[in-house]
Every structure is written in structure tokens, then in C-alpha cells.
Amino acid sequence: MTVSEAIKRWDCEREVTTVCSELIRFPSENPPCDVTGIAAYILERLHRAGIPARQLSAAPGMTSVVGELDFGPGPCLVVNGHMDVVPAGDRERWAFDPFGGEVREGYVLGRGASDMKGGLAALLVALSEAVRWDSLRGKVLFMAVPDEETGGWYGTRWLLEQGFTGDACLIAEPSGINPTIGQKGALWLRAMTRGVPAHGSLSPLVGENAILRMTKVIEAVYSIWGRSWTIPPEPRRLISETQAILREEGLEVQAEVLDHVTVNVGRISGGDKVNIVASRCEAEFDLRVPVGVPVGVVLDLFRQLVEERAGSGVEITPLREPIEANYTPPAHPFVQLVLRIIREVAGDTSRPVLQWASSDARFFRRHGIPTLQFGPADLQGIHGYDERVAVAQLVQAARAYALLIHDYLSPGDGGGSRAA
After folding, report:
1. Is pTM, for the whole model, over 0.85?
2. I need a surface site. Which of 75, 267, 362, 382 has the fewest CB within 10 A?
3. Total domains, the chain
4. Which one of 34, 148, 387, 407 is the catalytic residue?
């Protein structure tokens, strides 16, 4: 039996389920994003498996774990996953302890089960298996990072800036059977309006209310949703193909947003007291930009519409660095390699898709590294209550990751030489 055949039959269910459950028990919510506990667990597990690894911190609590499997000269495959999770929110609305890691009826339950401690668990188990092989050539660079849920600046981006890089990257983000090859861009902006205070008992005859002016700003920004965009042929084709796949899966809303700029006013505050005409109002907006549309074009439209409907003088500032939409072409050899492996392991017709959100993949692509995401997922529960992941998907992911490491680093086997 070949190594590839053995991987496909590999019984890793108990191990990957246990690791996923143990990872969930670390409440690595972001904010505040203190991942020191889960990072120590991952480091110790890598060391027990005989994998050289170390911790690095870009800021207090923002600890990354980097491990390396070095098989000699050859291509370098990066495998990446984030340790932070979104907050659990109101515990009373969960049907189970969000940080209990309970296993029930074929699922591991808890915050981060799908996004993305299930993927991290599968990576760790696959690496522990790969360390035993002696026929490979090249390197596997493992990254467990913080901060993905709030931008990735102190995790993946920082590690790349420190010189940790490779020839191709697999991120174990939740995807289900169809790997993600691209993400929408993101534009997070703050708008501030100013008014003239006066006694509230004389409003609206005196003063100028900054909150009322902000309502005009919000109406202007929300009109962006209805706009049509000129998108180049290849991104347009990718969007159309992804929309068809999502609709097959019953994800109509996710399909619809792919070629639109979505708009959300997520935070608003203003005024000083109920009986004073508000002199100041501030709102924060989240806009997601389709593949093929530059964020600068959307920003210009944002400013234009605000000025037309709310007048000049509205202060608009970025909340963070804009994110351009990005993707790895579906015909790239690395994408084709991963697709083949998923189909072999899952016995399904896996197809590459675009994602309606954004992720750390953009940092790798900025460095010219072909990157895609594939990981176990219950897509309906991500960032919501009662998040879970199927044990069967954990097993499939672990087998797929192990097979990817083997095939990518196998000399003369059509792996790294074709996919780099």
C-alpha cells in the first residue's frame, strides 16, 4: 500500500476530535485577543510530535506559533490557521457551553468549532502524521496566528513581515467541500457630522442637529447597495460560477452579495444630553467590495454621495487600512492540486469559489503566494449561537491536509514541482 492510499484510509477520528475539543476549551475571544493559553497548548503538542516550533509575539497577548517540518531542499508549503474566535455573546442563548468542547451526535460543539479550531485541529493531526515520513523533499511551515478576526495585523501580516514565507499556502478556514480561492475587499470608514447646539425645547426652530444630518449620510451610503459595477471578464465569471454553487446549496443571500457592495452601519453615537440639540454625531460603516472592483472607486463614490445628500464638511476617515478584493486564479496548479485531493478524500465534485467576506489570505497573495482556504465547517453557525463542526468533516480535512503535504513535497510525484 502506498503512502497516499494509507492516508485515505487513515483512522484519525478519535485524535482529531479530541484535539478540536481541547482547542475549543481555550476561550480565545477577540476582543480582547489573548491567545497565550491556546498558543502554549499548540506549542507543547508540536514538540511532543517531534516538530521544531517556537512562539513569537507582535504585541501582548498576540502570540503566534511557528513550526517547521524540514525535509531538505525543495518547495515550501505554508499551512495557516487562526487561534482567535469571535465573542460568544449572551451565554443564555447557547444550547450548550460555548467553551465546553462537548462531542454530541457526530459533532464537536462550541465557539470556534468551525471558525476555525476544527481546521487547526486537523492541521495539527496531519502534521503529527507527516513527521513520520522520510521520502519528502522541501518544507512545511505551520503558522497558528492571533488577530484574524480583527484584521490579522498582529498575526499573519506580522509573520510575513518577519520573513516567514513559502511557495504556496493552504489556510484551514471553514469552507465546506468547496475551497475558497478569493475574497471580497473591505472598506471600514468613520463619518462625523457637526451641528449647532441649542436648547432642546426650541428644536427644530433653533440650532442644527448633527444626528439628523447623519441620517442623510446613512441614507446616502445605503444607496450604494443598489449600484451596478463594471467587473472584468475573469472575476465576473468567477462570481457567476460561485453564485450558481451557493444557490445550489440554498445560500441565496450569500450568492446575491457577491457582485454588490454591501453596506452596514455598525455603530453610531452622538449628542450630549436629551435636551440639547446635538452638536456632534459619529457613525462607522463596513462596506464589502466585489472582486474586480477597486476599493478606491467605492471610496470616491462614498464621498460623492455623502456630499450630495448631507452637504460639505462631513468628516470621513478610515477605521483601518482598506482591503482590496483578491483571488488566486482557479487554473493555478496549486489550486488544481488541492481540488484533486479534496475530490479523492471526500469523493465529491469540489469546485473553487469566492468568499463574501475577507481573511488573512490577502496577506499571502500580496506577497505573490498562491493561496486558498479549505477547512471543516458548518457554515450556517459561524459567528452565531450553537456553533459546531461535524466529526466526519474533521477526519476528511485531516486526511486532505496530510495528502497535500505528501503530494506537494513528493519529488517526481507531480506535487511540489508542478504546484509551486
Report:
1. yes
2. 267
3. 2
4. 148
